[in-house]
Amino acid sequence: MQFGELELDPAVNPAVLDTTTWDPGQASRILGSVPIPYWQSVRRAIAEGSQLPGYEHCVVYHGSSAGRGTSVYTLARLSDGQHVFIEIGASEGGLGEPLQVIPLGGDMRLAVHTADIGTVRRYVRTIRPDKGPRAMGAVPRLGIGTRMSTSAWPGIWRAMDEGKFAANAIQNSVRELNLLDDVLAGRPARSNYLYGFGTLEEGHTGSTFEGLWLAGVIAALKAETQPAYGADADHITVRCGPGGLERAKRVIDAARDYTFFTLDVSDIVNYALAEAEQFAVKYGLALDVVVELSAYIKSLKGDCSFDLELSIDECPAQMDASACLTTETELLFLIEELRRRSVPITHIAPNVGIVKGQDDTGAGGLAGFERRIGGLVDIATEQGIMLDFHSGDDLRSAARQAIGRATHGWNHFKVSPSLQVIFGEVLHEVCPERFQFWWEDTLAYARREAAAGSTFAAQCLRKYEAGEDPAPAPHHSVFHHYNFASVGRRDGHGQFVHRAKFYDLPAEFFRVYHNRIHRFLCDVAADVFGH
Question: Are 73 and 202 in the same domain?
């Protein structure tokens, strides 16, 4: 189907569009073929709280259902992969203009509503507010990068329920997500730089900020559990040079329904200045930008609360992480200055020496790592600020446990690449021929980066080529670190090249993947919250 300049099949390209009712005419035809007695039985089941009946062309979800006034509501998935909201009652209940109205006899009617971003927003505000993302303030949680969108959430909800932890279960950054306007206009992806890795295309998952939020909330509505979750527009990066601030505002516009905003100003901090008396200059521009962007978020959110994080955890290009470590004096300065400027900060991600692709080996080993974090935690806790820890994917359990001990379990711990790496591991086991394609594309990408000067890409390739195990496999470091670029790659005309191949997979794959995600997240939560 054509959406602006973009051609795609939404059934195997989820979390791109701002609607999951992409063919209203077809949706109406499918719903028109459903017998009226079925809808009457759905109404009775919702009213009585009993199991909802099934039908071959339509699946309704108990987790989304509710009664309000004289009407009942539920989310339905149609046989072509579209979703709609169903309202059964005597009068309209506040979801807006229906797509279709079907008389059910007497004064009962079935109103069909498109499952677009506006309707979903109204649904979780008025019908099921317990199922929407929320700002949680200083609540310990995981930040779970949902690079594989709809493939990941069933395992995430299950882990959250069993592990009894909260999470920002909708989380990605401008590195992973596109802006919907850019995708629909057919604009090619922008290039970005990831510290230590080389260049990559922005939006490398293929999802958009709007589409990921929509797909995530629909996934939560489907869940039988009631997860306490937020939506993190992660690493809203402000780059040096003209246009950096305006670009960040465009990202915030696209992410206006998110509940957590991570402002990454690492690129405009003057790291050449390290002494306490220089902090006002070192962070002057960055703090000015944080003030402006926090006010901009407030203007969009109105009375809706949101969490706000200052991220200074990353290093500029060509700088060693040890040169960027956040000191206790520095953290206190930032907290006091943000308060003085009336910025409603709730979280700060300091630089504690964690680098993607590495377990912590900083000065003093794990003991030094734990002491360094502990000193920062004491300051943040006294000020009512929660510390966030990014890039935790490659930390061993021992390092995660050190964070748990240092923070007494009071932290926000983020992972992102892990769930995509696990996806690769399961694909290798269940669909090896599909993995082979991904391996070859990943190897080609790493070789391009090595040729362009990435020392890390060259190191990964040398390690693979010098090894005794040449067989394509996800355990090779070159795949572990460079697999991400394949999923959402777009061509020069802005069209997705490979994306459907990552979603058109057998049920057995998803069953194993969900189990693996569940186990991984429960282990991480036990480490970082269990002390």
Answer: no
End-to-end CA distance of the chain: 51
260 near 233, Cβ under 8 Å?
Answer: yes
Instruction: Determine, yes or no, domain membership for 495.
Output: yes
Evaluate whether 323 touches 270 at the Cβ level (below 8 Å): no
* Residue 399 · residue 364 · CB < 8 Å: no
Q: Tens of pLDDT along 161-212?
A: 999 999 999 999 999 999 999 999 999 998 877 666 788 899 999 999 999 9
Same domain, 462 and 518: no
Give the Å distances, CA to CA, from 146 to 95, 152, 219, 313: 28, 7, 12, 20
Residues 6+ apart with CB under 8 A from 74: 42, 46, 52, 60, 61, 62, 64, 65, 66, 85, 86
- Residue 470: count other Cβ atoms within 10 Å of its Cβ: 9
Strands (E), 48-151: 58-60, 66-68, 71-78, 83-89, 100-105, 108-114, 141-144
For residue 292, which of 232, 342, 256 has the smallest C-alpha distance? 342
Cα–Cα distance, 516 to 326 (Å, whole number): 35
pTM as predicted: 0.97
